[in-house]
Design brief:
The protein is α+β, with helices and mostly antiparallel strands. α3 crosses α4 and α5 crosses α6. The radius of gyration is 21 Å and the shape is globular.
Length: 379
């Protein structure tokens, strides 16, 4: 695992905000924010079932959103991800097969709507200025690395700064706003990803029904990223659709299926045990918990739902003795090699042979600035 150890990198990751001068001196500066991919280290997918998770924000991939003051409010399409001009019918069809029908414009529109509604409902006054929102991303699609929520998270940060209301929207509430925007679009997800991207770093999350009912959100505890062992990210060039994996299991859970309910509680407990293992730096225990997390998911969802390619990624890692599990709902895997560099080399060779991409995980430090931290302290 690589850490950004230069002071300038720390500052960049902590706020990821850039100010750019406009063409005239009187023009307000542009605002730019990044949000990073996240890895569900333990406990997923129990966040959707009043469970617990441990997640880490990673610098390997990110989405960025730029807000520039303008006369009209404009949501700018991305030249690649929101493509509407093609060389031929075949080009259009290939694009839809690989990228789907949706780009990021709908995500930007949705968070603007949700943000406006939240401010109105909570008596937060917004000035009348307009802006142009544009985005970019290098997070691979359908890899379970939270690409959609990264765009929404970065856009929310831009809106908070443009309207100067960051101090009025509590950090704990922001993941709910991001998730609400995605729900507007029918995206199936839980709070885990959004919490990881808002907070950054390593976070333990408790989504117990008591917390959700009483607070409206979970209990989120940042942890020292130095507690993490070296991790590796494995993903496929042509991943599965992570948005469809939860469907049947969730219905069974709602219907009171005893096996699903007990198994999901067991998954949630893995995060609790994993937090203890990290605090004690008991990495042998962490490895066992990661493998068990995947085993429980496999039993609940079944191999057809998980997909052969996703299962193969996990098994390739486990065949060389590495611990492994999905980063999210499929498309990418997080692996831990407890035996060190020699085992990492075996993992790299095995992944190359199988046609998978493997790279060391780069951990993002906490993303909370002084204003954010003050909202955490105020009750």
């Amino acid at each position: 695992m690589h850490y950004s150890n230069e002071e300038s990198d720390q500052k960049r990751h902590k706020t990821d905000i850039k100010m750019e001068s406009g063409p005239e001196k009187n023009n307000p500066p542009a605002i730019e924010h990044k949000a990073y991919a996240r890895i569900g280290l333990l406990g997923n997918p129990s966040d959707v079932y009043y469970g617990r998770t441990v997640s880490v924000s990673v610098a390997n991939f990110w989405a960025s959103v730029k807000l520039e003051p303008s006369d009209d409010l404009v949501i700018a399409p991305h030249p690649t991800h929101d493509l509407v001009q093609f060389k031929s019918l075949g080009h259009l069809v290939d694009r839809l097969k690989n990228e789907g029908y949706y780009g990021g414009v709908r995500l930007l529109m949705a968070i603007c709507k949700v943000f406006n509604s939240h401010c109105k409902d909570n008596g937060i006054n917004l000035h009348k200025g307009n802006f142009t929102l544009s985005y970019d991303t290098n997070i691979p699609r359908q890899t379970g690395l939270s690409g959609s929520s990264a765009i929404v998270c970065a856009a929310l940060s831009c809106l908070l700064d443009f309207y100067k209301v960051r101090h009025l929207v509590k950090v704990e509430v922001r993941p709910n706003l991001i998730l609400s925007a995605e729900k507007e679009l029918g995206i199936v997800a839980g709070l885990q990803d959004r919490v990881a991207q808002v907070y950054g770093g390593l976070v333990y999350m408790d989504f117990s029904k008591t917390h959700m009912d009483d607070l409206g959100h979970g209990k989120y505890i940042p942890m020292d990223t130095n507690l993490l062992p070296p991790l590796h990210l494995i993903y496929a060039e042509n991943p599965s659709d992570s948005g469809k994996v939860h469907s049947t299991v969730r219905q069974k859970w709602l219907d009171g299926d005893k096996f699903i309910i007990s198994s999901m509680e067991e998954v949630a407990n893995l995060a609790l045990e994993g937090r203890a293992a990290l605090l004690e730096k008991d990495y042998a225990r962490l490895a066992r918990l990661m493998n068990h997390n995947f085993d429980l998911r496999r039993r609940m969802f079944g191999e057809d739902a998980l997909g052969a390619l996703n299962i193969e990624m996990v098994e390739v890692a486990q065949q060389v003795g590495a611990a492994s599990k999905f980063t999210g709902s499929g498309g990418a895997v997080v692996a831990f090699c407890p035996d060190g560099p020699s085992q990492v080399k075996l993992l790299e060779d095995a992944c190359k042979k199988a046609g998978f991409v493997v790279q060391p995980v780069e951990v993002v430090p906490s993303r909370l600035n002084e204003i954010d931290l003050k909202t955490l302290l105020s009750k």
